[in-house]
Amino acid sequence: MAIIHALRGFTPEIGKGCFIAENAVIVGDVKIGDDCSIWYNAVLRGDVNSIRVGNRVNIQDGTVIHTLYEKSVTEIGDDVSIGHNVVIHGAKICNYALIGMGAVVMDHAEVGEGALVAAGSVVLSNTKIGAHELWGGQPAKFIKMVEPEKAKEMNVKIAKNYLMYSKWYPEDRNHAPKQD
Questions:
Q1: Per-residue pLDDT at 171
Q2: Percent of the chain surpassing pLDDT 70
Q3: How far apart are CA 144 and CA 69, in angstroms?
Q4: Predicted model pTM
Q5: SS3 state at 111
Q6: What pairs with residue 173 in β-bridges?
Q7: Which residues, at least 6 apart from 171, have a Cβ–Cβ distance to it below 8 Å?
Q8: Beta strands of the chain (E only): which ranges?
Q9: Do you find a cis peptide bond into 139, omega within 30 degrees of 0?
């Protein structure tokens, strides 16, 4: 069963239809929308500040989401895909964005609507990635614009696919444990 802990007076809130893998960790001031999937070994640690996750978000295996104490929060919009082994630390990820495998997105960075961060990239603190931009590298730099409808179509498809994958698991794993 997933590790879901209240801490400092905050109890994680998990929306309807979510899949939470049995070894995912969700702690403290975390709110997750509907139809999300939190995959194996993912950690959402809202111990020092808040983490907000929209609807139809997939947070893939090994991802760590955290913040800075009293200085940054993490906000993730709707229909966002966060690849395997990503670190998001106190950043804002807007609707329909895609964060590639192994990327790092640091405090006060913002990834715009429909933007793409290439696998293995490091988005430095305070970086502003505009809507429908592709960024990559270490540190991440602008590569090119992405056609808005194609980016949205791709990211919605990935989000729907992850929702479908989550339904392959037995029903007792498809819902977060009941909160007391």
A1: 63
A2: 94
A3: 34
A4: 0.92
A5: strand
A6: none
A7: none
A8: 3-5, 13-14, 19-20, 25-32, 37-38, 43-53, 58-59, 64-66, 74-76, 81-82, 87-89, 92-93, 98-99, 104-105, 110-111, 116-117, 122-123, 128-129, 133-137, 140-145
A9: yes
With a CB cutoff of 8 Å and minimum separation 6, the contacts of 54 are 33, 76, 77, 78, 79, 80, 95
Residue 152 DSSP SS3: helix
Region 63-79: mean pLDDT is 96
Strands 133-137 and 140-145: antiparallel
- Model pLDDT for residues 121-178, shown as the tens digit of each residue: 999 999 999 999 999 999 999 999 999 988 888 888 998 899 899 989 876 544 444 4
What does the block give as tokens for 55? 């609807």
What's the pLDDT tens digit per position in 8-25? Answer: 999 999 999 999 999 999
